[in-house]
UniProtKB/TrEMBL annotation:
GO process annotations (BP): xylan catabolic process
Organism: Caulobacter sp. 602-2
Family under the similarity heading: Belongs to the glycosyl hydrolase 10 (cellulase F) family.
Keyword Repeat in annotation: no
PANTHER family per record: BETA-XYLANASE (PTHR31490:SF88), GLYCOSYL HYDROLASE (PTHR31490)
Residue ranges annotated for the GH10 domain, each copy included: 29-348
Hydrolase in keyword set: yes
Reaction(s) catalysed (UniProt annotation): Endohydrolysis of (1->4)-beta-D-xylosidic linkages in xylans
Keyword terms of this UniProt record: Carbohydrate metabolism, Glycosidase, Hydrolase, Polysaccharide degradation, Signal, Xylan degradation
EC number: 3.2.1.8
Name assigned to this protein: Beta-xylanase
Domain of life: Bacteria
Lineage start: Bacteria, Pseudomonadati, Pseudomonadota, Alphaproteobacteria, Caulobacterales
Pfam families (UniProt xref): Glyco_hydro_10
Length: 352
């Protein structure tokens, strides 16, 4: 379908608010098909182990998606205990739920600048070197889920927020700015030869300079022989993001030829910079933004569509809702009913 045709379809399907009505007040078909049944790639959602205790949410996950990402319970903050031991009960439960329901599982995340457990900070290097402890962690975690995950976010948010180089962290200080990243990818490949290994970051749609630095890091990893086999763009965006920014970003990321994971999509109403926009207009723009994200992803070559992951299906389960109770960033409302955002995804997946 041409760009003109895509815009025509999207424009006609997302004319959802006018005359002061909210986007959600417009009719949303009650019989929308499940997202996973119409998308020609995996559609995912983040999840916590406690979510699986909610029968309604568990049923919604089974109906709508075919890939899960543990929201935080595969991160160091959960796994590494104060004494240096590892805890796997919650990620094991999520992995078992995915397997029992025929869903893919995305490992998230092995190394993140923002987390430096005390056990690493106070490491006794007379017993084990820092590099060996770093490798041991990656081997233990990625090895535990070998063959159970389709991929890993190996290194998360490595690029400085302003795009001026890479972030400083415990890992970079002890192992080197670039080497700790390359070492993580080499070790993850050793632990799981079959998984797609991804570099994941955020604000790539908003900040061209950060995006350029992200791409240069990916190119350097590839040139070094590090087994980078995919890239992820989180896409925590606001409803007032300028039309076209997501599309431009996706085209830039596609230039590497690697599979792309749209990895953590949500569209906040309350984080919008334009405080003059009313709720109705924000909801209209939210639906449009979900539609553009789907459209930009659909425009990728098939081999580059790794997966399309929503950072929560229902508003009430979103981290953004916890941050601001008036936010409603997800495609489904608190009760799991589809919103205009869900209709936009369905329409784009179905007709693009």
């Amino acid at each position: 379908m041409s760009d003109v045709s895509r815009r025509t379809v999207l424009g006609s399907s997302l004319a959802l608010a006018a005359c002061g009505q909210t986007a959600q007040s417009q009719p949303v078909p009650a019989n929308l098909p499940p997202l996973k049944t119409i998308a020609p790639f995996r559609v995912g959602s983040s999840v916590q182990a406690l979510h699986l205790d909610d029968p309604a949410l568990a049923a919604l996950l089974r109906r709508q998606v075919n890939q899960l990402t543990p929201e935080w319970q595969m991160k160091m903050e959960y796994i590494v205990q104060p004494d240096g031991s590892f805890r796997f009960d919650a990620p094991d439960r999520i992995a078992a739920f995915a397997a029992a329901n025929g869903m893919a599982l995305l490992g998230h995340v092995l190394v993140w600048y923002a987390q430096a457990p005390d056990a690493f900070e106070r490491l006794d290097e007379n017993r084990v070197s820092f590099e060996q402890a770093y490798r041991n962690y990656i081997l233990a975690v990625a090895g535990r889920y070998r063959g159970k995950v389709v991929g890993w976010d190996v290194v998360n948010e490595a690029v400085a927020e302003d795009g001026d180089g890479w972030r400083t962290s415990l890992w970079s200080r002890r192992l080197g700015d670039f080497e700790h990243i390359a070492l993580a990818f080499r070790t993850a490949r050793e632990a799981d030869p079959g998984a797609t290994l991804l570099l994941n970051d955020y604000n790539l749609e908003y900040m061209p300079r950060k995006r350029a630095t992200f791409l240069k890091l990916a190119e350097r990893l590839l040139a070094s022989g590090a087994p980078l086999t995919g890239i992820g763009t989180q896409m925590h965006v606001a409803a007032d993001i300028r039309p076209g920014e997501i599309t431009t970003m996706m085209k830039d990321l596609a230039s590497l030829g690697l599979p792309i994971h749209l990895s953590e999509l949500d569209v906040s109403l309350t984080r919008s910079d334009n405080k003059l926009l009313g709720r109705a207009e924000l909801e209209r723009r939210q639906a449009r933004t979900y539609g553009e994200a789907a459209e930009a992803f659909m425009a990728l070559p098939q081999r580059q569509r790794f997966a399309f992951t929503l950072w929560g299906l229902r508003d009430g389960d979103s981290w953004l809702k916890k941050e601001n109770a008036s936010d409603a960033p997800a495609p489904f409302d608190d009760a799991g009913r589809p919103k205009a955002a869900a209709a936009a995804l369905v329409e784009t997946f179905r007709r693009s």
